[in-house]
Amino acid sequence: MASVLTQKRQVTIPKHIRDTLHLSPGCTNEFAVNRDGEVVIHRADEFEQPEANPFAAARGKADIPWRTDDLMKLLRGDD
User: Fold this and answer.
1) Which terminal Cβ of the chain has fewer Cβ within 10 Å, N or C?
2) Per-residue pLDDT, 62
3) Cα distance between residue 49 and residue 33, in whole Å
4) What is the pLDDT of residues 12-42, one digit of tens each?
5) Alpha carbon of 75 to those of 29, 62, 63, 66: distances in Å?
6) Cα(32)–Cα(56) distance, rounded to whole angstroms?
7) What three-state secondary structure class fits 12?
8) pLDDT(7) > 90
9) What is the DSSP string of 13-79?
10) Are 11 and 2 in contact (CB under 8 A)?
């Protein structure tokens, strides 16, 4: 599928490619040229390194629906 380069040097990524890569507005992409001179596009978040924040890996992992009162009793050691 062909695409036209605009005066601002921009191109539109065809819809079937956007859909396949799950690209959406604001999504970061990684472009490269392979040995055959072909352009390769990847979602940049596929290659992101783990955050330096040690709590980042645990963020959003709790699967127990704690009630505030129960959690406070546990943390304070109340019986």
Assistant:
1) C
2) 66
3) 22
4) 989 998 898 888 888 888 889 999 999 898 8
5) 43, 16, 18, 12
6) 29
7) coil
8) yes
9) PPHHHHHHHT--TT--EEEEE-TTS-EEEEEGGGSPPPPS-TTTTTTT---S---HHHHHHHHHT--
10) no
